[in-house]
């Protein structure tokens, strides 16, 4: 380092001492003319004079800037005159600006003074010049006609000589703020002049104009007092200059500026200590000039919005601001900025992630099918890899998140969840990296904030398709990552159990709510795993199972959840609602966990009903909330086979839950929606056969409407009677169905399908006891209620004559009790006033199951395999009993035929043992002879049948193979016909026997005769078809038998013609069921279902039958529809799926899968 | 089943439901809330956090469920 050279005079003693800087106040004078101004500013080598002039000019400018427009006209005129006078002469009149003219020097005296300041090291002058120029430019920018002077001055500043001075000023010592700050102000004014007209060249000269900017940004205000707005620090001035540049520079220049790391770093380094106005201006400029400027490349924005900047801006959440300040909140502004910056895709911060798929995996990788089949999810080596960390694309946001405290501030909570929403990959990773925080319950503000944050996180939706693509990727996302978004890591089973069982109700409430939203989210995730569009369905299904399993291991056991619900005080409606909602969700979404625990919902339901039935609820909203809890419990009851709907409960003052539920609905405050509860009531009533479940019948509606028509006092009397009737009817539905039939028999000329509700029969039965008891109030109430109820029953389509019959009986009974009905007969066309009838919605509420949403628009529950077997499996009519070989010998001819000895023997022809068959053949021959020799009335026909059978068996060589089942079955069924000469088939069977001694085993006897020919005997067509189907069911036992059914024939295969029978709209249910039995049997034969499907399109046939059944006007039971659907499922289960799938291109599978999917549910709820 | 009264706009329903929810929550958890207020870390934004935490539970109720609760205004029985 060179020796410092003294620039001053004699310092005395020769010893260098730092000179004490003294700022002598400059003198000044008032300016009244431009001439005076010109003289004052004329260059003078006397620094004192120079300062005097500049100071006078400064005061003049200050004054002019401070005055209002009308008062400063004189000053402006003086200034204008001065500027005109000193305007460089080299500039042409036309204002053309050639390079030479660019060199024209404006205010040459001032510029010379500035240069002189450096020649003489006069710091006061170094400062005074930019002070004056900054003020002058500020003033000139206000007036359009003076802007050209300003531009001229700016161009002068851009000349090499002045740029050097600017550069020197800017890089003055750190302590020389009085030199640096005015220079920055001057540059800022120059930058902003005329809408940034000179910004570009100013930036081009950045080596000088932006000199030491980063350093200058670091010259902060020092002192105990806060920085005053009218005395800004160098940092403040520097940043304002920089912000001004951002506003007026073009995108490319901004990109260049943002790449200056030192400037970017200095910009926000002390932001927490910066004055409010500066911070607000910074945030606003960052947003408007960078964030929202789509012409700036993302990378350039990213240079500014790096982790440090974001963390520093996030520190503004704690910015100290006077709460009474009228200025906008810095914390709010920072929050708004961060929200926009972190979530805007073009903001330079957010990077496109791949949803729940970590950065380093390819979700569309094609795995060998063999691997998938063999290894399942293990075929993906990464499936279990992400248990403690997940690589993410958004590392900037990830780092920012680690610096936020979402539990301590609502805004930070909002910011973090907003980031999670746009970058779902960060959810799991955030909790992996933030392990220090546990969810151990503690009743503090921090714990509550954390619970709120977790709740918001869980509430976030799962990204569509788990990724960003327009469809699901080939492979499912890692389970740990999905689970991490559903049940974030801090939500451990241990912590959740402790929360649920905590002494603090609030803690338990918060944990319950989190679990509710978590299970709902799990449900959504599982449904996405089961979407139809997955290519690897099995793989996705396995992932869904694993997800559910792992979820179940992380949540508290069902017992804990039930216990937590039980321990909620009665009056805590909100908490109870949440608790019951949690249990309901467990039953619907994770029944495998829910059903593990023994849970009798009855007492809780009773308690809930009891609360609602009390008349103490003050706020109707509380009542509505209580109803919501009740709905949840009712849904759970739907899963609870032990629910005792019609048993009197002590908790309900001796009434049954069903009655109390009805009462709650009837007495509910007006305006409360009760659809859900009425639906449950309707379902239970229909299931217990208290009301009719016919299509088009509204179930409980007439009863509800009748009760609603009574005053509250009157219904109060009716409830015990109604409860008694409902309980009795539910306990013995058959008894009252029979009672209805008995009543029907007493009425003449009834239509065949006349019906009334069994409950009416129960009421009729119980009425005498009421009369006997002599409760006058009840009798009076019934006098009004019963006509209304019966009238409404007639309105909804129950038999009017039958109801009239009941009404007259009721009338008589009441008369005995000296009571009377309000009407002499059932009122006609009683209208519904409280309810809508006819129902607008086709779906009847009588068949909906509580707690189980209807699927695919089908309202019935599915039938399981066992139930289907029970309904359609026919006993084998050809069961072999070897004792038949000997038993018949001692019997008489009529015993042989009437008691079934003959059929027993015939059956043995189909035995699998050759010796038995041969022995049976010999015995049949003997039997035929015995019958013929007997006195038996139909001996000839029986002999003929047996003889023909023997001949046929011989021709078939029964020793080698069993006689085909059709022949055996026909013989057995024909024998029964011959036994009954009144049978409508007697002639046809005899006609068949007369045709020849040997039967054609390639034919199914009598099929054509019955299906095509005249039945001969009256209207016996259906009886004959029934017989035919009965024998054909027995005839179908082996694949060879089935061949006869689908063999091509002149009139089409037999099975095809049988299926066509169903097109007959008059064919009744028993016959249709018989046909279904035949099909069911075929499905049990090897290849049967495949043949049925590929040759006869039986799946579509079943579907059509089901539809027709559901649409049938006659209504009634939905049993057949369920049968059709269940049988369709069985066809799919038993067919060659590969072949059928190929044949139908997946259509059959699609039709039948719905059935399969329904089955487990039906088993769960039944 | 019964005919519904004129419908209130969704925003009103939400705001009324939130206010009801908060009222109920403060009633049910009054004791615990007092304890939280006296906790050491109850400062700065804690009150806002607490209120926000309580009312976020309204998200569990669908707009329809909120409407059902809010619109059950009529006092007394349906045929009082």
TrEMBL record, chain A:
<dbReference type="Pfam" id="PF11707">
    <property type="entry name" value="Npa1"/>
</dbReference>
<feature type="domain" description="URB1 N-terminal">
    <location>
        <begin position="107"/>
        <end position="450"/>
    </location>
</feature>
<dbReference type="InterPro" id="IPR021714">
    <property type="entry name" value="URB1_N"/>
</dbReference>
<protein>
    <submittedName>
        <fullName>Ribosome 60S biogenesis N-terminal-domain-containing protein</fullName>
    </submittedName>
</protein>
<dbReference type="Pfam" id="PF26140">
    <property type="entry name" value="HEAT_URB1"/>
</dbReference>
<feature type="region of interest" description="Disordered">
    <location>
        <begin position="1"/>
        <end position="31"/>
    </location>
</feature>
<dbReference type="InterPro" id="IPR039844">
    <property type="entry name" value="URB1"/>
</dbReference>
<feature type="domain" description="URB1 C-terminal">
    <location>
        <begin position="905"/>
        <end position="1101"/>
    </location>
</feature>
<dbReference type="GO" id="GO:0000463">
    <property type="term" value="P:maturation of LSU-rRNA from tricistronic rRNA transcript (SSU-rRNA, 5.8S rRNA, LSU-rRNA)"/>
</dbReference>
<dbReference type="Pfam" id="PF16201">
    <property type="entry name" value="NopRA1"/>
</dbReference>
<dbReference type="GO" id="GO:0000466">
    <property type="term" value="P:maturation of 5.8S rRNA from tricistronic rRNA transcript (SSU-rRNA, 5.8S rRNA, LSU-rRNA)"/>
</dbReference>
<dbReference type="InterPro" id="IPR032436">
    <property type="entry name" value="URB1_C"/>
</dbReference>
<dbReference type="InterPro" id="IPR059018">
    <property type="entry name" value="HEAT_URB1"/>
</dbReference>
<dbReference type="GO" id="GO:0005730">
    <property type="term" value="C:nucleolus"/>
</dbReference>
<feature type="domain" description="URB1 central HEAT repeat">
    <location>
        <begin position="640"/>
        <end position="823"/>
    </location>
</feature>
UniProtKB/TrEMBL annotation, chain B:
<feature type="domain" description="Ribosome-assembly protein 3 C-terminal">
    <location>
        <begin position="17"/>
        <end position="62"/>
    </location>
</feature>
<keyword id="KW-0690">Ribosome biogenesis</keyword>
<dbReference type="InterPro" id="IPR028217">
    <property type="entry name" value="Rsa3_C"/>
</dbReference>
<dbReference type="GO" id="GO:0030687">
    <property type="term" value="C:preribosome, large subunit precursor"/>
</dbReference>
<protein>
    <recommendedName>
        <fullName>Ribosome assembly protein 3</fullName>
    </recommendedName>
</protein>
<keyword id="KW-0539">Nucleus</keyword>
<dbReference type="Pfam" id="PF14615">
    <property type="entry name" value="Rsa3"/>
</dbReference>
<keyword id="KW-0687">Ribonucleoprotein</keyword>
<comment type="function">
    <text>Required for efficient biogenesis of the 60S ribosomal subunit.</text>
</comment>
<dbReference type="GO" id="GO:0005730">
    <property type="term" value="C:nucleolus"/>
</dbReference>
<dbReference type="InterPro" id="IPR051898">
    <property type="entry name" value="Ribosome_Assembly_3"/>
</dbReference>
<comment type="similarity">
    <text>Belongs to the RSA3 family.</text>
</comment>
<dbReference type="GO" id="GO:0000027">
    <property type="term" value="P:ribosomal large subunit assembly"/>
</dbReference>
